[in-house]
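This entry is set out below.
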Amino acid sequence: MGRYIDEILQPGEKVLYSTNAHWIYFLPAILGWIAAAVFLVASGMVPPGSPALVCLSLAAIAAIFALFKTATAWFHRWTTETDVTNYRVVHKTGFIQRQTFEMSVDKVESVDVNQSILGRLLNYGDVTVLGVGEGGKTLDMIASPLSFRNAITARPAGV
């Protein structure tokens, strides 16, 4: 499966910047894997019998949760594309049920970036693209939001 942006480029249109959902989407999965490992280690440190069985059961439950969260986070990142071309801003999510947002860069009125403290440290945030008479769209937890904003708002000389 090719990239969505490559399928919809118009003649003379070039991709200036591409980003994706940040790896922070994997945080619940990472925490689940850590919990599974802790319970697994704890099962070897407690006396055999019921306490060990409880720890192994909790490890299995945490591993199943972590596996599910890993799969859903990977699928979200795989099916989400956010691009800026010389003509428009394009955001696509979904695989079977596709949702797209496109706005001409000429119609962009403002680009707002919201970052938490953790978002500033790990370089992710929410970007809201507001258009003239077109409303807007908030793109959640994208990687490098300031670079994304700059790709939209920067205009090369002569354009």
Observations:
- Helices lie at 4-8, 27-45, 50-78, 117-122, 145-153.
- The mean pLDDT is 91.
- The CA atoms of residues 10 and 87 lie 9 Å apart.
